[in-house]
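To assess whether ligand presence alters the predicted conformation, the chain was also submitted together with 2-phosphoglycolic acid. Input:
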Amino acid sequence: MQAWVIGNWKQNPATSHDVNALLDDLLTAIEATEQANSEVTARCQLMVAPSFIHLTAVSARLKGTSVLCAAQDISAHSASVGAYTGDCSAQQIADAGATWTILGHSERRQYHQESYDSLLQKVTHALMQDLGVVFCIGETQAQYDDQQTLEVIDSQLSVIKSLLAQQQELIDSLSTRLIIAYEPVWAIGTGKVPTVAEVSATHQHIKQSVAGVAESLSAITVLYGGSVNADNADIFAADAMIDGALVGGASLKAESFLAIATAFSKGSI
Ligand code: PGA
């Protein structure tokens, strides 16, 4: 199975100049990696998600390369246009050259109070505009301590279940257009990670739940995210339930991002 390593650049880098420098480094590192081992990018699909403001420039530079470009969010209010100050629609994202969007990241859930209803709208809008969706789920530290991880995840996955119940015709497209990213909130940007066994068991649960909604989703890609770096990627990559990584901090350096991709390309054999 092909692995996926996705860089979530969040609100970084600060300037267009720095974005270009990061892309230069990334494309040079990919070329060097491909020369050393052409299997890396064949076995591991790379994607980066810059801020809206850099989306057009980044997707233009990535055109014709093996790296995909994603947005970090889209408007819940309209799939195309409307009086929604500050929003960016799925159509605008697709027009900017992105082919995927991250949705439901815990920072959006926390700082923008993203609800079940708004996420249902966002996923629907993304699919209407043929954007793939990287749907993020995960428990907080308190929920983890209370052993509520699976309950929280089931409740967050209910967005996908509702979507399919309402729009059966989406089932086929979802098998190639939906990725789930399991990111424990307490592991994001903290340097703390769950054990591989914990992540593996949670991923198994996610895969079973999603397959329970639609058999065609039984091969769904489930990524782990939260403090993945060049040093710990190997242990996650070695587990058959972990199909790749959603990477924040370590995606801002081409070297660590490619090291993570190399680890997952070996893990996917
Ligand atoms: P991190 O972020 O790798 O910096 O922990 C992951 C994420 O938020 O997607």
